[in-house]
Amino acid sequence: MIKIVTDSTGYFDKKFCEENDITVVPLKVSFGEKTYREGVDLTPDEFYELLKTSKELPKTSQPSIQDFVDVYKKILEEGNEVLSIHISSKLSGTFNAARMAAEQVNPEKIKLIDSQHTSMILVFLAEHALEEIKKGKTLEEVYESTKALVPRMITRFTFQDIKYLVQGGRLSKAEGVIGSVLSIKPILSFTNGVVKTEETPRTWKRALKKLLEYIGRINEERGIEKIGVIYGTNLEEAKDFASRVKELIGKEPRLQQLGAVVGTYAGPRWIGIGIQTQK
User: Fold this and answer.
1) Are residues 135 and 247 located together in one domain of the fold?
2) 68 and 159 share a domain?
3) Which one-letter DSSP state was computed for residue 87?
4) Whether the Cβ atoms of residue 86 and residue 6 lie closer than 8 Å to each other
5) DSSP letters for 91-120
6) What is the span of the domain harbouring residue 221?
7) Is there a single domain that holds both residue 159 and residue 265?
8) What pLDDT does residue 85 have?
9) What are the Cα distances from residue 42, in Å, to 139, 145, 165, 222?
10) What's the pLDDT score for residue 163?
11) pLDDT digits over 68-125, tens only?
C-alpha cells in the first residue's frame, strides 16, 4: 500500500488525515525559549493570540531529518511505500530534510514531491495522489502523475499589514517602507517555488478586487478545477470573499485557516487563494 506523508504547512483537516491514513510531520515555531510543534502543541487560534502579544516575531524551523526517518521507517516496516508531499524547497528546508531521510531509509520505496507552494496546494496534490492510489497505480505512476499536476497549481496572497513580511524577510525593507507610506497591500504569488510580488494596490479593497479579477481571468484562460480561500483570523472576510468568488465563477471555494508557519509572515489579517486549474 502507498501511504502519504506531508507537513503541517498544508493545514490538513484532521478527520481527512485520519480517514486516509495521512501522516503530517509538523514544522516548529518558537516564541522566545518556548517551541511549539505546529498543529500538535499549538492551534491556529492559539498561535494568533500569541502573535498579538509577542514583542518579537516568532521564529519558524523545519522538521529534523530524524523526524522524517522515524516516520518513514515505521511506514515501511508495516509493508508500505511512501509518497511524501511538501512545502516548496525554496521556502523551507523541509523538503531537503525529507529527501535526506529518504536516502537514509530506502529511496526506492519513498518518492518526494516539491509542491513549489504551500497550504491548500498540498491538499490538492494529496487528494489527487489518493485517487491514483485507489486506482491501484504503482508508486512510480502515482509519483509521476502527481508531480505532473504541480504546474497547474496557483497561489496568491494579499495582506492588510506588511510588517510581518518585512520583519520575516519575505519582503525587502525598501518595499516595506513604500508599503507603509502609501498603504500598499501587495499581492504576492509563488512563482517557480519562490515568493514574487505581482501587484501593489494601494488599498485593501482594491487588492481584493484585483484578486477577484485574477480568478476570473484564470477561469477564462485555463479553467478552475478546485479553488480555496485561505485566511488568518479574518474568517468573516474570507467567507465574504468566497461568496464573491462563487458568484464570479459558479464554484464554491473551500475555506482554510492557516496557522503558525505561514501566519508568522502573513500576520493575522490577510486573504489568499489556492487554485488547481483544468489545464
Assistant:
1) no
2) no
3) S
4) yes
5) T-SHHHHHHHHHHHH-TTTEEEEE-SS-TH
6) 152-277
7) yes
8) 98
9) 33, 34, 21, 38
10) 79
11) 999 999 999 999 999 999 999 999 999 999 999 999 999 999 999 999 999 999 999 9
User: How many structural domains comprise the chain?
Assistant: 2
Which stretches of the chain score pLDDT less than 70?
Answer: 168-183
In a domain, 39, yes or no: no
Give the pLDDT of residue 184: 83
Q: Based on the domain organization, do 116 and 226 belong to the same domain? A: no
Residue 182: predicted pLDDT:
54
User: CA 37 → CA 40, 67, 164, distances in Å?
Assistant: 5, 12, 20
Q: Establish if 56 belongs to a structural domain.
A: no
**Measured distance CA(153)–CA(192) in Å, rounded:** 11
Helix (H, G, I), strand (E, B) or coil at 263: helix
Phi, psi of 111 (to 5 degrees): -115, 140
Alpha-carbon span 58 to 217, nearest angstrom: 37
CATH of residue 21's domain is 3.40.50.10170
Rounded CA gap, 85 and 11, in Å?
13
Q: What is the pTM of this model?
A: 0.94
Beta-carbon neighbour count of residue 104 at 10 Å?
Answer: 15
Contact predicate 5/85, CB 8 Å: yes
Long-range contacts of the stretch 135-142 (C-beta < 8 A, 24+): 139/2, 139/81, 139/83, 139/109, 139/111, 140/111, 142/2, 142/83, 142/111
Q: Cα 122–34–52 angle (5° rounding)?
A: 75
Check whether residue 131 and residue 226 sit in a common domain. Answer: no
Residue 170: per-residue pLDDT: 58
CB 276 within 8 A of CB 125: no
Closest CA to 272 of 153, 126, 152, 120: 120
